């Protein structure tokens, strides 16, 4: 499907270089996972560098991503129409590398029909997978002000969450459900009295609703936990995040699993063993930020699975 919306993959070579370090240690027939296929930028480069006996398994919720994936004819490649939280369904200790490129892709933002952007008129949808689940418009049609406030505050880190939620409910009660992106953006702009220079008042609210409606943070936590099961010793976990909520989860997960932890309530018990070795924290260089301004907030964290496979991993 040809569209005017293109995607420039962030930290492309850096991510693939880091990921394939796990393949080098994997031995024969390695399996690599691109858990966020998007438009296939990472997958295509990975395939160009994988050995002939390797396999690349991709995941994506977005049906447009499946269309893009259909253009890849390499027999080593397969894609699943699933969110990346299904990573844990793969066999234990079977994977040499897992790549997560979090957030939203440029084609999703730039296509008004997807409802992710406050800059263009479109249906207030924001679902990554448009074949299932509730749209933002459907949720807002009945959500209580307290819940709307909580979502905007917790997922958007928006200090005007309360006034925005009250304005949304008042507008709904006066004129019926909010159905378009521009309607919502106007309501937010009227409720937000001050804003950082250069930032649209609706930015944080749109981010919050997108994260909430797609359960993005919960799915990320499930997937990080699953990586412990599926990664074999020496396998790499590579995660690219684009805002503080995501990166904080990744950073805390790696920190908690990259050191021995003693239970002070049971001083003679064996400590929790280290399960990851943190290898790198990478940000885009100046040239990439100039060429692709959307990359400026990206942070890539790289870790290596350590230890030996356990019976639980193979279960």
Describe this structure in words.
By secondary structure, the protein is an alpha/beta fold. The chain folds into 2 domains: 194 residues, Vaccinia Virus protein VP39 (Rossmann fold), CATH 3.40.50.150; 85 residues, Putative methyltransferase TM0872, insert domain (DNA polymerase, domain 1, Orthogonal Bundle). Helices cover 40% and strands 14% of the residues. The chain has a 7-stranded mixed β-sheet, sandwiched between helices. Helix 7 packs across helix 8. The longest helix is centred in the middle third of the chain and has 15 residues. The protein is globular, with a radius of gyration of 21 Å.
What string gives the helices and strands in order?
HEHEHEEHHHHHHHEHEHEH
| Mean pLDDT figure | 90
- Please give the largest β-sheet: 7 strands, mixed
User: What's the helix count?
Assistant: 13
Strand count: 7
Outline the secondary-structure elements.
Layout: H1 12-24, E1 31-34, H2 41-49, E2 55-59, H3 63-69, E3 77-80, E4 95-101, H4 106-110, H5 136-140, H6 145-156, H7 161-175, H8 181-191, H9 203-213, H10 216-230, E5 231-241, H11 244-257, E6 276-282, H12 286-291, E7 299-305, H13 311-314
Parallel strand pairs: 1-2, 1-4, 2-3, 4-5
Antiparallel strand pairs: 5-7, 6-7
Helix pairs in contact: 1-2, 6-7, 6-9, 7-8, 10-11
Supply the key terms.
Rossmann fold; 315 residues; seven-stranded mixed sheet; 13 helices; DNA polymerase, domain 1; alpha/beta
